[in-house]
User: Fold this.
Amino acid sequence: MFGNLDFDVIRRSLPYLFLDGMSFTLMLTGLSALGGLVFGTMIALMRLSSYRLMGRIAGLYVDFMRSLPLVLVIFWFYFLVPYIGQWVTGASRPIRVGAFTSSLVTFIMFEAAYFSEIMRAGIQSISRGQPAAASALGLTYAQSMRYIVLPQAFRNMLPVLLTQTIVLFQDTSLVYVLSIPDFLGAASKVAQRDGRLVEMYLFAALVYFAISCLASYGVRRLQARIAIVR
Amino acid sequence: MNYNWNWHIFFEPNPTGAGTYLDMLVSGLLLTIKTALLAWIIALIFGTIIGILRSLPSKTASWVGFGYVEFFRNMPLLVQLFLWFFVLPELLPRAAGLWMKQLPNAPFWTAAIGVGLFMSARVAVQLAAGIASLPRGQKQAATALGLTTAQGYRYVLLPMAFRIIMPPLTSEFLNTVKNTSVAITIGLIELTGQARAMQEFSFQVFEAFTAATVMYLAINIIVVTGMRFLERSLAIPGYITGK
Assistant:
């Protein structure tokens, strides 16, 4: 069954797969998670704000993003980002945007919707007495969020945030639809060039599997360690 | 913004020679729904089996359940589809592999099965959680009434668990619908694929994607509204979701 397979093709393409492909994937995952977290926290704060309109806008954004498939969103932003860039910079024509920037914007905007729901749950899990005590001490809203509520919300939700990041790591493989050489894209390029689909896709699957398994094992360990005894 | 909007494009004939661009999108929509429904049936069947395995006291059964879920959860869906579509036919005996490759509608069946199995791991986790949330007395009462384990699951545990996990199952179904769009990579021309094709033929990028977006939103709204009614009528009295 494995008779006419050539696993040497994997060894030969390792530098390309990891130095180019995997570093793209990891960089995209890391930056999108950071950006998504920052933007998501802002959306969560908007949703929980006492201004009704702000809450509605944030809620609509989240519901909207969550009802669209990621592939469609990737296409949307791929075509939209040049126009947004033109609008922002005031250029006379749509600006050229690299593959990395385009996918980074996509993932930050998309993941922000998911991260905001996690942060919202985290903020709501903090007992009311805490912001009340903060304002009794004379802290402003911004200060009480910055020093009291958000640090605790973040800590409570850290395992969930990391699990979502693992999902994000897997989802970045979808940039394949733009023929961007992330890890899977690189594997696929070699596979098609050398006619070695079976070997390359099996290897890619194994690598994704190993990384995700290790990461989720790490999250479980972390969860056990940082759980606050109540 | 120097982009030429042309909303009439939907009513212009498409280059395939069969109807307008709108017809193209609608046929994509129908294919999305068809794929998602078949995938959902597969996900429910396998998810139920694995969910039950995970809830059984037997060590072996829960290990099998754990392994199954980890296998399908730790690989990107796209990679799984590639495994089913490109890799599996090569690893099977020659005749079987050839048969798979020559299957008419191969992308459709691969997508339905691939997305279905991917989602089944999530259904299994939800179901196992639903069964675990039932009070222990339910299982004991079933045993006390003389029901076998199978009967206990069939008549007591599963009907309760499924009614409890109705809301998360609704969102898993919507995820199934969304996930079918990944099958664009193995050549399934569903809604996203048709929007992309329309964009390539007509150069009206934003109209095409807007239409696809509206259609996905419509599916969401219809499913959510329908399920809300169903959830209300199936809610178990006395539980938080019940009356």
Residues 8-48 of chain A form the longest helix (41 residues). Chain A touches chain B at residues 1-2, 64, 67-72, 75-76, 79-80, 83, 86-87, 93-94, 170-171, 173-174, 176-177, 184, 188, 197-198, 201-202, 204-205, 208-209, 212-213, 216 (CB under 8 Å).
